[in-house]
Design a protein that fits this description.
four-stranded antiparallel sheet; alpha/beta; 14% strand; 476 residues; eight-stranded mixed sheet
Length: 476
Amino acid sequence: METSTLYHQLADDLSSAITLGTLPPGARLPSVRRTAHSRQLSLNTVVAAYRVLEDRGLVEARPQSGYYVRSRLPSPARNAHSESGTAQGTDGAVLDLIGAALKAQQTPGYIDMALACPRGGDFYPAAKLARLMGQVLRKNPGLVSNYALPPGSERLRTQIARRGLELGMALQADNILLTHGAMEALQLALRAVCRPGDTVGIESPTYFNLLPLFASLGLKALEIPTDPQHGLSLDALEMLLNEKRLNAIIAMPNVHNPLGCTMPTENKKRLAALVNCHQVPLIEDALYAELQFGDALQPAVKAYDSDGWIIVCASYTKTLAPDFRVGWLEGGRFTEALRKLKFASSIAEPLVLCETLGAFLESGGYDHHLRALKRRYTLHIDKVRALIAEHFPDGTRATHPSGGFLIWVELPEGYDTVRLFDLAIADRITISPGPLYSPSGRYRSALRISCCQPLDERFIAALARVGELAGQCAGQ
């Protein structure tokens, strides 16, 4: 039998197993070597068959892991909102909905699919950090009896600059500012580049906590269409910049929240060129950038910043120690203004916490931890997408994230996820309805699901229940 016939036959056999559910979504295919041995085929023939399955969209290859069955759940179509939103204050109903969601998250006994913060000791190296903190204090017990002063831990700032190279950024430790989490970094950045009444371009959908932040600073948000696969619409952005309608921009080009997408490199280069040409500051939120799946990280937009118009910020709350609340930013041409604002607001971050994180990054432990974390989130994403495909209404779509642990789910048109939120709350389950992610309350048929907790029987039953409840929300 010809080799071409052999690999097509193998591909067809495996396709049938996938269709029948023998190989369910998320399942790992037998290794190339094992399949070659069991089928008495050459390694090249098996590789060719697996590539046919990739071309058919049935499996995906994961570096240093193997081939996995993809979920049959379709991805969202391009953003239906093709026009930029109006530059107005956030709808009061959206702020009320954010408040209701946060209140539910803090109520004991709820199953929380909304909070984008990993829960459980398995997601953090708590024991290692505790040992390192003890070592740091034994070497320098005076840390707890002295005031921390700017610019903060040189050890941590040096490690942040070193790690920036993996995202293509040439950062200088002296220009890095340590902050109280990413939220303070975003707030300081906005205060440095904007004044009350200014208009800030945001992705649509966007990170929901920006909306109360904008309200507190007296800023207007202008929604810019954001594609579930490719990110921010640069054509729409360029038009707004040409019309001089924006005072600043906030974007999450790597592992977007809530869409999970990563902007193609050519688009990042164009984005950097646009903001430098028009001299409009871009605040780049790189919170999830190190959680990109795959070995090689895609670069930050900051990597292409020619004249300092990009402020980049991130934190370690999602990957290492949420209660440390240690974040950072590098402000480009706005560095000095940011230093003054930080000193006036909270002076500096606790030195013992920053030294502990710096020691962990120095040790190489962070890289090992990230690799394990990304493998786990990859499996979680696949499992949750498969459960959505099984339990949610026909016609449901969901993103296939490039990293992180967030899935953006789009129910068929006419379904109401605010109504679904209310029904789920009654069953002691929290979700994040789509209107949370738009100052004008768009995305009524969408929701975000967080996969950063143990996917135990309780979680699986709750997700199935949400899918059941979704069926009651059509045409509301």
